User: What shape does this take?
Amino acid sequence: GTPLTNLSLNLDLATDALTTRPAEARKRLALVSEEIERLSRLVANVLTFSRRERDVLELKPVRCLPDEVILRTLDAFRPALERRGILIESGLSAPGAIMLDPDALSQITGNLLSNVEKYAASGKWLSIITRIDGEILTMEVRDKGAGIPREARERIFAPFERVRHATNEGASGTGLGLAIGRDLARRMGGNLVLLEGENGSTFRLTLPVTSALSIVSTTDAA
Assistant: This one.
């Protein structure tokens, strides 16, 4: 269902269980919290897309620790991922501070994790790693889901595109997550791509460590 429908349903159930079944009430309130996060991401994606379309999207690079930004985003997703039975493996190895927009990095990371939750939960596994390769920050998010057909591997980065599969029927979403992720990456001088592979999907984000001091246009970065 939609985030608002799920919010309403779980709040009603939590209210009914509050006095007689406190454990059930806590469970329902945890689901409410997840739906609020989900709704916040949806609104953020729509706002980012709207600003991009009106050419008023501005990024604000500051000196920050990318691993901390990514871990904070992962921790926000952890309850929902674990509730879906997804084993999380992380190897964050980019401890240094670099110049980038932390909100943009968090939004990219969140969109990739959201895709695993919605479309690749059948694989029951998620890996997220970071590293510094020379002057490039790399983050990879990998899953063991149904994967993406070869003919759709570039199309999925277009706005409102979603790959239909039997394992994700009924999953809600705007189809903006990957389009926004790639756009934000390119505005920071990097890129977001889907790697070739036989099983599941691996998305790789690359961002420059030094040249991220100056935010570039998507035309220059493409």
